[in-house]
Amino acid sequence: MKVEDFDYNLPEELIAQTPLLKRDESRLLVLDKKTGEVEHKRFYNIIDYLEAGDVLVLNDTKVLPARLIGVKEETGAVIEILLLKNISGDEWECLVKPARRVKIGTIVSFGDGKLKARCISEADEGIRSFELIYDGILMEILEELGTMPLPPYIHEKLTDQNRYQTVYAKEVGSAAAPTAGLHFTNDLLKQIEDKGISVLYVTLHVGLGTFRPVSVDKIEEHKMHSEYYQMSSEVAEKLNKAKRNGQRIIAVGTTSTRTLETIASKYDEFRECSGWTDIFIYPGYTFKAIDALITNFHLPKSTLVMLVSALAGRDNILNAYKIAVNEKYRFFSFGDAMFIK
């Protein structure tokens, strides 16, 4: 299967640069995965498509202010580091620009030395591992020195950093937001629960895969980067009961989907667990966990377009995207939403 088969034409002006004033007033394209039929709504209308007994699963990861601009101690050269993954203790996997300036032993200083990063290993694609050196609490230092790691296609400055967090963000550790969840408000979540829909949370810390395009021609040759996930025993028990009772499991976002499908594929059920997943879902995959999906519009030729195509069919997805372009929907992180039912 070719990566080119998941390309589509997107005018640059449709890439959303800023979030809407009200989260739940974004547009919502509703796609019937069986018929390909499309409806146009607002996100707050999502409650009309949810039924009592449904289970809604959201990713409660919280984005780190993980983008740091510092200087190389030896030369004063400006270095940008994006914290991607906490390997252990104070060792972090990072994306570095310009990576050619950073070798093993290089020390990068941030905030006049309040935080330092010493390179301890090199890898391909601009990846380096660093030991972070600091006094105090790392998260407090990052809050002071770091900024939100917005995707490279967003050029506008974010005035309110919380708009790149979901209202239910809790578990700190992501290098990017689970953007399908950005449309929810606390009021909307309460309305959903009041309707008899279970709202459950899993965690997947979004990592390098978000920032890396697919660089091979054949899908089967693409290697996903691993990301950390966890599920509690309480959530696992409720999901197993829902499956037994034939209730719909609706994932909010591709990250929740990948977490649920990873666990269901590994254990043939849901259970309390944590670990690293590099699951790659593309057409031909048989879904074991989810029945429906709330998601955003994804980059052309991305692994996320492939995932939604696995669920709804490539032709249905590409047709829905074409309609969305014609109807001038807003695309990507701060853009509009799609419900695949």
Q: Could you write a compact summary of the structure shown?
A:
This protein is α/β, with parallel strands linked by helices and 341 residues long.
Describe the structure.
With 341 residues, the chain is an alpha/beta fold. The chain has two domains: 3-63 and 160-340, QueA-like, CATH 3.40.1780.10; 67-145, QueA-like (Thrombin, subunit H). It has helices at 138-145, 186-194, 233-244, 254-267, 303-312, 314-326, and strands spanning 27-31, 38-42, 55-59, 61-63, 67-72, 78-88, 91-97, 107-110, 115-122, 127-134, 171-174, 198-204, 227-231, 249-252, 273-277, 292-296, 337-340. The protein has a nine-stranded mixed sheet. Strands 5-6-7-10-9-8 form a six-stranded antiparallel barrel. Strand 1 (27-31) and strand 2 form a beta hairpin. Helix 5 packs across helix 6 (314-326). The longest helix is centred in the last third of the chain and has 14 residues, at 254-267. The protein starts with 26 loop residues before the first strand and ends with a strand.
